[in-house]
Design a protein that fits this description.
Chains A, B: The active site is at 322 (proton acceptor), 323 (proton acceptor). Chains A, B: Belongs to the histidinol dehydrogenase family. The structure is a homodimer. Chain A is built from 17 helices and 14 strands. By secondary structure, chain A is an alpha/beta fold. In chain A, helix 2 crosses helix 8 (184-193). At the A-B interface, helix 5, strand 2, strand 3, helix 10 and strand 13 of A face helix 5, strand 2, strand 3, helix 10 and strand 13 of B. Strand 13 of chain A pairs parallel with strand 14 of chain B.
Chain lengths: 429, 429
């Protein structure tokens, strides 16, 4: 892991550059699958499932039998862990509910804002070696609190035509309305267009490999919204001598094991800590099952020493980390002044994995610098904010002239006329 | 205007089809301009301004002198109208502020959500025949309330190198920090990359022609967010015998004058009203200055008679109109049950142009059916929701085991290890 001392500001963007991804090569594949599924529906889905997942399916939707069968395959202790996580995530997301906002802006002019659930949402959950059932908690729980009517879950089947039982258990527990054994591009295309068995949805959430990422981008061309643009996972830790080097190293590695393109960064005002963390990384890395992945990610990663907290903060805000851990004496300085980060973890006993699983916050977060302008998934991700207004006769008399003047100045006479007609009718009465 | 009686549900999607737009032809032009501005900055901006706007500029940013000069060119009565609108828009958007949400999900596990302003935003305001200064109110006012530090406005200059004075006046009034005489693709590219004079921004808002629409799409490939996907403007009115045919026609026409691809729809349970509105449209249309545009839009538009309110509501929710006017006896039925609409206007004295200008609601709304999944611009459009958490020793002891179990079940041992190390250290103490 490269250590950099006091980098000058004009080198920051180079030092903080993220591993880039280009997906152009697979765009054609994705578009072809979309085309086929748009015109052939389930037939095409089954064809691609055979081709990509190497399994022939009769029925795409999980039956009640399959769901209750899966429940028995999850250990009781894992179920309890999932239930604990669910309770915390529910508490935190339910607290994000807001009341309608109503204002009488002028006497007789009443405006209000109400949030209405997105009626149909789709959740994509990757399968394979790491069955990310935790992501179901993060998506289905707020979807349910918001009141989304249709919550569709797609996840790829294994070669026996089954979905990992923990995925099925968690989906069922969190109020998913339909579960489909469909993965990859074909899942995203299926939810975009709808097929004989898969409902069309209005917004698609969830992580995935490069094919899923491109498929979600393509879906947006067909009037579907997506949770946020994708990018490799990343973590930035700011730490000083009050931090524990072993803990910091374990946090950096927990992010590094996600993928070879993950990026982890330590910013520190302590040279001793930088040295200690580097050593700890070496020793902890050696015994990790996913060390080959983590080792590659560590190559993209940096230990950065800076002289002051002010300098550190500026650099961190410039980077806009997805995950930001604060292990310093003066926590308040960073917590109050952080402008760009997805989620912030404060203190020596707040590992990032707490937020990944069970503390209550959402783990679907903006990466790739998107923390500068995107929120992570939160309750509002499952709502649209709609506005309403009702104007009385005296209300339109109070603001009508202003509307007429402005519409005329913009050259929009029909806009003006809609008010003029009403004002005239009131004069005549 | 075509009248349709009791269409059966399987014909709805055809009847409600929106005029389509395809922009592929101009994508190359847009990408070339982006490339040039990325590498040449202001030089390229000036080159394209000369080419597209037919004016050679020395300086792109408006000077204080130019700003104060413009103030004198706006009539006092228009200024007062703009100030009235500003006051209402401020009241409604300020009321949308939310407090941080804090929850102790488990004893010792404190999670909170705080909204932080997007630091740098860009507003694009078209020029030309209809100077849309009202859009500045809709964008700069909430940007200011949210606390965005840099609020950049770009608008194309005329052949004399000037921006319409109402745009300059409104921008200055609403706290825009810098105004640039740059339009079209070059404005969007300039704000995406930043140039010697134009600051790089994180999110771009505002309407525009097809070049601006494609440029905003391209900008998202360079890590910039945009307010929402674009589409032609649209209005749906539901009305019964309690409605005034002349008012309804004036509202339909106010939307129709926006562009030839605008779409307006009347859904009614009264055959008499359908006939009356059709007649009113003919007579009002004849005297409109923008009748050529409105006439084309009316061709895309429909009067739909249905037997019941239930049927009407289902059809409206299927369409998801940008603007939705409710002029019926039983308003409550529609107001309570509308699921998909950008903004709702209730009663005979609530013309859509009130919301376009001065009632207080925002006029930047989801069109093209996007009301199913997107909010219109509102205060939160200028924030990111960030989460924070702080876990105590007893907190991690309470949830640590659940995290370990879940991480292990997902095959992410380094995630587990970050917790295990901490739990062990607490046992040893």
């Amino acid at each position: 892991m490269k250590t950099i001392y006091n980098p000058s500001k004009d080198t920051w963007s180079e030092i903080l550059e993220r591993p880039t991804q280009t997906f152009e090569a697979i765009e054609d594949t994705v578009k072809n699958v979309f085309k086929a599924i748009k015109s052939e529906g389930d037939v095409a889905i089954k064809k691609y499932t055979k081709q990509f997942d190497r399994v022939e399916l009769d029925k795409l939707q999980l039956t009640d039998n399959e769901i209750s069968e899966a429940q028995h395959l999850v250990s009781e202790e894992l179920k309890e862990a999932i239930q604990l996580a669910k309770a915390n995530i529910e508490k935190f997301h339910a607290a994000q509910k807001t009341d309608p906002v109503q204002v009488e802006t002028t006497a007789g002019v009443v405006c209000w804002q109400e949030k209405k659930p997105i009626q149909k949402v789709g959740l994509y959950i990757p399968g394979g070696t790491a069955p990310l059932f935790s992501t179901i908690l993060m998506l289905a729980i707020p979807a349910n609190i918001a009141g989304c009517k249709e919550i569709v879950l797609c996840s790829p089947p294994n070669t026996e035509g089954k979905i990992h039982p923990a995925i099925v258990y968690t989906g069922n527990l969190c109020g998913v309305t339909k579960i489909f054994k469909v993965g990859g591009i074909q899942a995203i295309a299926g939810m975009t267009f709808g097929t004989e068995s898969i409902p069309q949805v209005y917004k698609i959430f969830g992580p995935g490999n490069q094919f899923v990422t491109v498929a979600k981008q393509v879906a947006t061309q067909y009037n579907v919204a997506i949770d946020m643009p994708a990018g490799p996972s990343e973590l930035l830790v700011v730490a000083d001598d009050s931090a524990d080097a072993a803990f910091v190293a374990s946090d950096l590695l927990s992010q590094a094991e996600h993928g070879k393109d993950s990026q982890v960064i330590l910013v520190t005002t302590s040279k001793k800590l930088a040295t200690d963390v580097a050593k700890e990384i070496e020793s902890q890395l050696a015994v990790l099952p996913r060390r080959d992945i983590a080792k590659e990610a560590i190559k993209n990663s940096k230990l950065i020493y800076v002289d002051s907290d002010t300098e550190a903060l500026a650099l961190i805000n410039e980077y806009g980390p997805e995950h930001f851990i604060v292990c310093v004496e003066d926590e308040d300085f960073y917590v109050s002044n952080i402008e760009n980060a997805g989620s912030v973890f404060i203190g020596n006993y707040t590992p990032e994995s707490a937020g990944d699983y069970a503390s209550g916050t959402n783990h679907t977060l903006p990466t790739n610098g998107y923390a500068k302008q995107y929120s992570g998934v939160h309750l509002d991700s499952f709502y649209k904010a709609m506005t309403f207004q009702k104007i009385s006769k005296s209300g339109i008399q109070a603001i009508g002239n202003a509307i007429e003047l402005m519409a005329a100045a913009e050259g929009l006479e029909a806009h003006k006329n809609a008010v003029t007609l009403r004002l005239k009718s009131l004069k005549n009465n």
